[in-house]
Hints:
Layout: E1 6-8, E2 11-13, E3 17-19, H1 28-36, E4 41-48, H2 49-67, H3 73-76, H4 88-100, E5 105-110, H5 119-126, E6 131-135, H6 147-165, E7 170-174, H7 181-190, E8 195-198, E9 206-208, E10 213-215, H8 226-236, E11 244-247, H9 253-261, E12 264-269, H10 271-276, H11 278-294, H12 300-303, H13 320-329
Helix pairs in contact: 5-6, 8-9, 9-11
The structure holds flavin mononucleotide.
Cofactor: FMN
GO cellular component, one term: cytoplasm
GO molecular function: dihydroorotate dehydrogenase activity; dihydropyrimidine dehydrogenase (NAD+) activity
Amino acid sequence: MVDLSTDWLGLRLRSPLVVGASPLTRTVEHAQRLADAGAGAVVLASVFEEQIVDEQLGLHRFIDSYVDTDAEARSFLPDIDVIPIGPAPTLRHLQALRAALDIPVVASLNGITPGGWTDLARQLAEAGADALELNLYEPPTALHATSAEIEARQIETVAAVVEAASGVPVTAKLSPFYAGLTAFATQIAAAGAAGLVLFNRFYQPDIDLDTLDVDRRIVPSTSAELPLRLHALAVLHGHVQLPLTATGGVHTGLDAAKAILCGAATVQLVSALLDDGPAALARISRELTRWLDTHHYRSSHDACGATALHSVADPTAWERLNYARILESWQPARTRR
Length: 337
Ligand SMILES: Cc1cc2nc3c(=O)[nH]c(=O)nc-3n(C[C@H](O)[C@H](O)[C@H](O)COP(=O)(O)O)c2cc1C
């Protein structure tokens, strides 16, 4: 019998298969069905920094507009702190999920500056989140910021969220586009993060050639997106002393097995579950168990990192030189056997 349980962020999960941040847990009923199908934990949809900041600014504007009409208004208008703004619905939903589910519930924040909004981490921790996932989603549109400036700000943000979370573990969700990913990951660990989630899947706008507008649809992933994650997992596993999570392109138990072999302690699923519902989770769990069993692994923990950079017989398979070899060995289709 294969033991799927895993240790992650100081939590004991019964399975490495985790429901990733998305609308999949928008209702308690749906989250319960995913838990019943075998999920090890669930991650809630993100609250965005901008949501918090915009709502605070909006309230200030509202109060200030009254202050302008009456000199005494400041005394009779409510104190800004007592008005339920910002993440109240998320906090209530989090509490409802915590009460209903017997698996860890991870809250998600999406932000990239170390401002006052990071107090949200404290509120989510106090509302009972078992862990927090901080998504450092930042497509490269700042025209003058250098990579060093962007990374320094993101590291400060991680430190601010970790401090606000006061003991509740924070895992950082990264994008694939850091030139020095391993050094950056080390700095994220030094800032107090308890784990890394690889990778953010940038929403990839297309161009509508009829309207000449940007097509804003989210296209679900396919397994073709997994190898980018596998490479990063294999390189970071053992190099950064943090549990790693794969997100992006896991659709089968074999995909999950590859992510675990490359070093993932947990594997998140979103597109597969949006496509096929909780049944996909049960299927992926069965396929993963069967693969581990067939290959004589007694637990997913035993398989974790077995093909990582430091474990494989030929580490150059993961390295730059391998690219040159592959290019050299390429044969036109006609001559391929
Ligand atoms: C509809 C939808 C909503 C999502 N919402 C969030 C979110 O709120 N926060 C977040 O960090 N990621 C969000 N994601 C990204 C997923 O958590 C995940 O990282 C990504 O979809 C890649 O995993 P997959 O290949 O299993 O879909 C969302 C993805 C989808 C498709």
